[in-house]
Amino acid sequence: MSTPDATPCCAPLTRETISADDAATLAVRLKAIAEPTRLRLLSLIAAGDGGEMCVCDLTGPVGLSQPTVSHHLKVLVDAGVLTREKRGVNMFYTVVPSALDSLAVVLTTSAAAPSPAGA
Amino acid sequence: MSTPDATPCCAPLTRETISADDAATLAVRLKAIAEPTRLRLLSLIAAGDGGEMCVCDLTGPVGLSQPTVSHHLKVLVDAGVLTREKRGVNMFYTVVPSALDSLAVVLTTSAAAPSPAGA
């Protein structure tokens, strides 16, 4: 039973030297999304009506069985990048934008970061 | 013999539905960095004098043998996020900022993206 945790873990990787603990936390989150089907699921869910999708509507586009899709969705929920809500007999999934954005911030280098005002 | 390739592969994940091919490319790049030692190596190299470091100076901080560190560095070079240059008997490694930034762009959601002018 892992707890979803999308708390930003670390400063931008190339700006501050990352600690061993932070590197371990960050690696777990990156590993959760570093899988082709999971990337497609994230993208499909974000494009869904109201930014959410039912597992029943995801099996077709990715061409996988419902148990396989549910497993991938669970990994993404555990990593904090998706939330789920049961409505009736269906489970609906929504992307957590702040979780993806916090990963993006860690990877952004000073070359891409906005310059400080007046610099 | 993989060719380093840091060409941006995809539009932001939550803005456009990612194709199966792009998801596969992106997953390979994310997997390369989704490892604690490799994240620490990237961070240490970026903090190095002139933004580069010799493998000989990286073994101490990560507490691993030179062959293990060299293996991790090769994965990062193959993924296009590091370049290497031999000078004398030493191999020096430098971060490729555009490669990390292109991964960051793919993960950034519209919630974090700058608003279009006037919007």
From TrEMBL, chains A, B:
Keyword DNA-binding listed: yes
Keywords of the record: DNA-binding, Transcription, Transcription regulation
Pfam families (UniProt xref): HTH_5 (PF01022)
GO molecular function, one term: DNA-binding transcription factor activity
Chain ranges passing through the membrane: none
Gene3D superfamilies for this protein: Winged helix-like DNA-binding domain superfamily/Winged helix DNA-binding domain
Tagged with keyword DNA-binding: yes
Ranges for domain HTH arsR-type: 18-115
Entries under NCBIfam families matching the protein: HTH_metalloreg
PANTHER family: ARSENICAL RESISTANCE OPERON REPRESSOR (PTHR33154:SF18), TRANSCRIPTIONAL REGULATOR, ARSR FAMILY (PTHR33154)
Name by which UniProt lists this protein: ArsR family transcriptional regulator
Originating species: Georgenia muralis
